[in-house]
């Protein structure tokens, strides 16, 4: 069946309307929102961008990121689940997995039988993943992994995680490889962080896990041995764009909430929307929205062009750069929009009972994960200065 973009948006809208009360309740109780997966399954959203030959809907990038924008309005937590499961979970399997590996994981992921996650970060390897210390050793028809992964979205609920490591004895010198690791085996130990130890997104699952002689069948290697860094960086293009799209949704929600509130709240004898300094905030949020929307759309269109010409390195380079630019811009714009929305709500804005305050706390992480502000600025600067001016390798 050909991909139906209108149907995807209808299903996304229905999902969003059902997930909102569940998210509000979970937020009030500061606990994991266990309704996201069942509701996404009900509305057939767990395989949005997975190919139809592997049980997904086969959404193009523009449609997929438009759906993530709508989901982003429900909060950064809800969108982060989809990023972990699809943008950085299913995407590398679909892009670098063998046909057998795709058949093993993607239909189950699309049906909601397997939740996916992406484990690159370690306690001592964040902005520079090359500083990781996870190792693997090939033993017959399997790989054996040892190491720790840290701050992994969906890490405590995932059935399979994309993990990365060096060959044993060659940490920092060998070439990183990428694997799909099942979490239901004895060598995999997961520990979810206490929800109250987080500044925002109390309803999300962020976990660390340890691998002690964790076994991966040889066919669960992504690409060839040594391809891991390429897999990680290629996956981050998809991940960054999903963060940018989600942040656009956050800005849209901040705008809707701010307009609604400012038109009814009265101070100094009139609705606060009539005060010029309140209109200044509203104008800024609208400009955050318009500029982010065009950057996300441009980056998604380029990703579609690049996907249509897989061997074209120039298109891939442009898609990578536009995704980094969209992510840097939209995450900062969302932070600004949420801050302004809080200001317009006054004392109520500061309360987590209202949406702007929750957006402000939740969206802050978007300037950290999938490439910090600083790393993205270095990447953007190197693109205009020239490769020989790269401030980091
Ligand atoms: C809620 C949450 C969810 C996450 N989900 C995932 C996930 O699903 N999978 C995953 O693999 N990771 C995930 N992460 C980890 C995230 O990607 C890292 O936190 C991020 O890459 C930054 O690494 P770090 O925290 O180690 O900071 P560090 O790398 O220690 O950086 C600290 C500061 O130094 C700056 N810095 C570092 N190097 C340079 C440099 N060369 N030049 C200038 N400044 C520099 C950074 O920009 C930052 O400001 C998640 C994190 C959070 C908080």
TrEMBL record:
<keyword id="KW-0285">Flavoprotein</keyword>
<dbReference type="Pfam" id="PF02770">
    <property type="entry name" value="Acyl-CoA_dh_M"/>
</dbReference>
<dbReference type="InterPro" id="IPR036250">
    <property type="entry name" value="AcylCo_DH-like_C"/>
</dbReference>
<feature type="domain" description="Acyl-CoA dehydrogenase/oxidase N-terminal">
    <location>
        <begin position="10"/>
        <end position="113"/>
    </location>
</feature>
<dbReference type="InterPro" id="IPR009075">
    <property type="entry name" value="AcylCo_DH/oxidase_C"/>
</dbReference>
<dbReference type="InterPro" id="IPR013786">
    <property type="entry name" value="AcylCoA_DH/ox_N"/>
</dbReference>
<dbReference type="InterPro" id="IPR046373">
    <property type="entry name" value="Acyl-CoA_Oxase/DH_mid-dom_sf"/>
</dbReference>
<feature type="domain" description="Acyl-CoA oxidase/dehydrogenase middle">
    <location>
        <begin position="117"/>
        <end position="211"/>
    </location>
</feature>
<dbReference type="InterPro" id="IPR006091">
    <property type="entry name" value="Acyl-CoA_Oxase/DH_mid-dom"/>
</dbReference>
<protein>
    <submittedName>
        <fullName>Isovaleryl-CoA dehydrogenase</fullName>
        <ecNumber>1.3.8.4</ecNumber>
    </submittedName>
</protein>
<dbReference type="InterPro" id="IPR037069">
    <property type="entry name" value="AcylCoA_DH/ox_N_sf"/>
</dbReference>
<dbReference type="Pfam" id="PF02771">
    <property type="entry name" value="Acyl-CoA_dh_N"/>
</dbReference>
<dbReference type="GO" id="GO:0050660">
    <property type="term" value="F:flavin adenine dinucleotide binding"/>
</dbReference>
<feature type="domain" description="Acyl-CoA dehydrogenase/oxidase C-terminal">
    <location>
        <begin position="226"/>
        <end position="384"/>
    </location>
</feature>
<keyword id="KW-0560">Oxidoreductase</keyword>
<dbReference type="InterPro" id="IPR009100">
    <property type="entry name" value="AcylCoA_DH/oxidase_NM_dom_sf"/>
</dbReference>
<dbReference type="GO" id="GO:0008470">
    <property type="term" value="F:3-methylbutanoyl-CoA dehydrogenase activity"/>
</dbReference>
<dbReference type="Pfam" id="PF00441">
    <property type="entry name" value="Acyl-CoA_dh_1"/>
</dbReference>
<comment type="similarity">
    <text>Belongs to the acyl-CoA dehydrogenase family.</text>
</comment>
<keyword id="KW-0274">FAD</keyword>
